[in-house]
Specification:
Blueprint: H1 29-41
């Protein structure tokens, strides 16, 4: 029986946990709001980002 080893921290001490996402390119702010609302209503966890 082997003892599980703790996960290694990065050089800066940060514990990395991968996340996956999708970026939807919107034509304008109204389109962004519509897509966000539709995804949210479907039960997805969403964030609004403007660059």
């Amino acid at each position: 029986m082997s003892i599980p080893q703790p996960k290694m921290l990065g050089k800066n001490g940060f514990k990395y946990k991968p996340k996956f996402g999708v970026i939807v390119i919107c034509k304008d702010e109204q389109h962004q709001a519509k897509i966000f609302s539709a995804l949210k209503a479907s039960g997805h966890k969403c964030r609004v980002v403007t660059v």
